[in-house]
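Reproducibility note. Readers wishing to regenerate the assembly model reported in the main text can use the exact inputs given here. Chain order matters: entities are listed in the order in which they were concatenated for prediction.
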Amino acid sequence: MADAPRKLAWRIGEVVETSPETPRTKSLFLEIPGWVGHRAGQHVDVRLTAEDGYQAQRSYSIASAPENGRVELLIERLDDGEVSPYLTEELRAGDGLELRGPIGGWFAWDAREGPCS
Amino acid sequence: MSGGFISRGFRGRRRRAEGDVRIPPGQYLVEGFPVLSAGPTPRTPLEEWDFTIEGEVDGPRTWSWEEFRALPSEEITRDIHCVTKWSKLGTTWEGVSVDTLLEEVDTAAEYMVAFCDGGYTTNLPLEEVTGGKAWVAHTYEGKPISPEHGGPARLLVPHLYFWKSAKWVRGLRLVAEDEPGFWESLGYHNQGDPWREQRYWGD
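Running the prediction on these inputs yields the following structure tokens for the assembly.
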């Protein structure tokens, strides 16, 4: 039996660039100290914290290939959303973004095996 | 390391005070009923459906759909919490208590693995599914559970994250030693208590 897995730590990534993709979607490019890499198809949990301590968490798929140095999230803004309007309209380069991951071992694959093998 | 981090400019949507105490940490309220599945939706005809308790038992016990539906059902109204962060309050189900099913077998097992059409499994200690804590549900809001929500029958273990409430359940395999199920083998927590935010390995 393997050792008990360590808790997946929350990390502060830095938003190094944002890029609108469509009127409703925006890419966030992140540099995340301590990031261990990911497999295609995995996701991260993003946690936002207001000044009074109120928090909201959401899961987002990782949009970048594992070989890229930066982690990209592609966010669709939902008009009645709580987190996606913040990520697409408020967040800008230089901001920190708290997240943890990569998460998930099912909807995931490696380039050498392809998604359909 | 991340203690005290503030998301610049984030205010967030404040919850209604009434719902506040019923929503576990990191969850948000939804009014709809999101559908999340790891694979295609199986559609087993009721005449082919049965439910089996097997494994570490004196003998396996199988119910046809008619026999299963003749067992006493209970109405259950509970809040449900998905590990993908949504919570839905006050859902009403009807189903057969796992206590009722387990009365039919003798076992010394302390764990079970629920198995399903499509190959999905999830593991639970028997103490988490006995004493009025878990059901095999056949009815949701007064109607047969639809296939995308796990019909004809799904496990209902509402005090744990909802991946433990296995859709399309076909039986329980009682085991002496705990065996991680599908998501429990793929990075998700073995217990899955939403109030302790046991989402992933190590939480």
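We highlight two features of this model. The mean pLDDT of chain A is 90. Chain A is about 5% helix and 40% strand.
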